Amino acid sequence: xxxxxxxxxxxxxxxxxxxxxxxxxxxxxxxxxxxxxxxxxxxxxxxxxxxxxxxxxxxxxxxxxxxxxxxxxxxxxxxxxxxxxxxxxxxxxxxxxxxxxxxxxxxxxxxxxxxxxxxxxxxxxxxxxxxxxxxxxxxxxxxxxxxxxxxxxxxxxxxxxxxxxxxxxxxxxxxxxxxxxxxxxxxxxxxxxxxxxxxxxxxxxxxxxxxxxxxxxxxxxxxxxxxxxxxxxxxxxxxxxxxxxxxxxxxxxxxxxxxxxxxxxxxxxxxxxxxxxxxxxxxxxxxxxxxxxxxxxxxxxxxxxxxxxxxxxxxxxxxxxxxxxxxxxxxxxxxxxxxxxxxxxxxxxxxxxxxxxxxxxxxxxxxxxxxxxxxxxxxxxxxxx
Amino acid sequence: xxxxxxxxxxxxxxxxxxxxxxxxxxxxxxxxxxxxxxxxxxxxxxxxxxxxxxxxxxxxxxxxxxxxxxxxxxxxxxxxxxxxxxxxxxxxxxxxxxxxxxxxxxxxxxxxxxxxxxxxxxxxxxxxxxxxxxxxxxxxxxxxxxxxxxxxxxxxxxxxxxxxxxxxxxxxxxxxxxxxxxxxxxxxxxxxxxxxxxxxxxxxxxxxxxxxxxxxxxxxxxxxxxxxxxxxxxxxxxxxxxxxxxxxxxxxxxxxxxxxxxxxxxxxxxxxxx
Lengths: 385, 274
What we know:
The structure holds two protein chains of two kinds. Chain A is α/β, with parallel strands linked by helices. Chain A has helices at 17-27, 42-51, 66-78, 89-94, 96-104, 132-137, 153-170, 180-184, 247-262, 289-302, 320-326, 343-350, 369-380; strands at 2-6, 11-16, 30-35, 59-62, 82-87, 110-117, 123-127, 146-148, 174-179, 186-191, 194-198, 230-232, 271-274, 281-285, 307-312, 314-316, 332-337, 355-360. Chain A is built from 13 helices and 18 strands. In chain A, a hairpin with a 5-residue loop joins strand 6 and strand 7 (123-127). The longest helix of chain A is centred in the middle third of the chain and has 18 residues, at 153-170. Chain B is of the alpha/beta class. Chain B has a single domain, classed as 3-Layer(aba) Sandwich (Rossmann fold), CATH 3.40.50. Chain B contains ten helices and eight strands. Chain B has helices spanning 3-8, 24-38, 72-82, 94-100, 102-111, 156-163, 176-188, 205-208, 215-225, 255-269; strands at 44-48, 63-66, 87-93, 116-121, 167-172, 193-198, 226-228, 241-248.
């Protein structure tokens, strides 16, 4: 259940994105962090190595590797502490097996990926959005993931709080898919006086801890509450007992993991938009690129071009119905991304009636607003008029 | 029926998946007796990885986490750090702990974090069908060493102790009382403890390592290879495996105690941030 809690050190601050994320984690109730230093996410582990040990219930582990860090946060969550880890591309890859274990055991943890350019060691100090699909389907097997993409330091704070709440509510890991730009940027942000935080209410006499409620979500339980829990990585029944050798039951189990996200997708829509009422062309963007998109759209409007903006904040699950509704009358959709044009594929699949233009960008730098403006002008026939 | 079965085993989970003659039953029995005699059931959680030995705890009527290959100790460390007052027992095997999970063993031992690791060494990858493991004796013709294994076996106890484990013992399934005592000592020990158990896998190791597929014959064979030690001597006689309690050292500070003391100091110096 969401509970309003007071934030003691609220107010206006100038913070780095990674710092805002770390501070938000503490405010949202995170009391365990395990991580491994990796550029460009390192400021998160640095910040929490201090802040968590200053918390009465806090604990911290600089793990021996990325895998260990991911496993430790899952262990700590079953111990009853909200927990988080943070990393970047190479580390995100290493975490994938344990991340799948968190999905399968329905463990609510937050995983921050401050994206850098890949593949391999790639571009440690440059930005990218290349992990957009890895965030969705990076681990083996079938599942659905919840993933948020912040575009500002304020959103690094707000979305981190939201990530914890969604993880607890849906009993699943949640990815905060940031990038180097928003992670290292410093901006003025407003830390609210109160935030809503999903609180753990202990369940008594839970015979079937992995039984499901009307939303297809299992109970919020953890160790040492007398439930004799079996947290099982093999597909399991509502008591945790393995069913991997039973085809029918296994199918139902995986179906439940998927349905708890898909069927509740309406609760997982977070889209900002502006100037859509009469827009002929719209830019659809997520993460930091949405900043350039916003600027480009506003300049276009000043020039009298009927341009609009759709900024997707919860990128996974993909907001298919909502996007169809918002973009129903829009002739041309422009999708800038700091990758080879990946999320655009989902948008093309979804918006069949629109002309969807992918604007990929490789090399680790963000699209300039003027670049996007030129494309808007081209598409509306306004250029050089 | 033995009342311990009623109390400790989830009967609706039975039967156990183990092959007939497997040594895991003796280890399970020793662990249950150890936990029961200490009276720590409600304050103890078990964590395991992947492999035959990792199927020991999932049937227990306790809080259990059956995790991914090689990482049981990493999960256990997170659990311990979140609940330092609780006992955490890890069940792992020679492949799980010494091959894919070797790095976690090194670092957990070095931290001296209070986790009790029961390392079941059956000299083979049993669950996948009899491939060479890090402890397979040289010359053994396994599914992946058809010309005879040529890697030298890894000594789990030696590695754990040199990495900083402060309690270490090795027994065989032919020593159930000593094993139970060692598990009790491991649970009570405030620091990282490793208890290695040499065990028989009649189905796989029986075929490729021991040329003896009778469980009792295998236990005899394993026992006859061992030599009792009162403390750790790195140079062991050729062909012999030392058994005994090798180390019990209470001089090093435990990891969660370090954190707790640091936090007490910090609280004296600074107010909470939220």
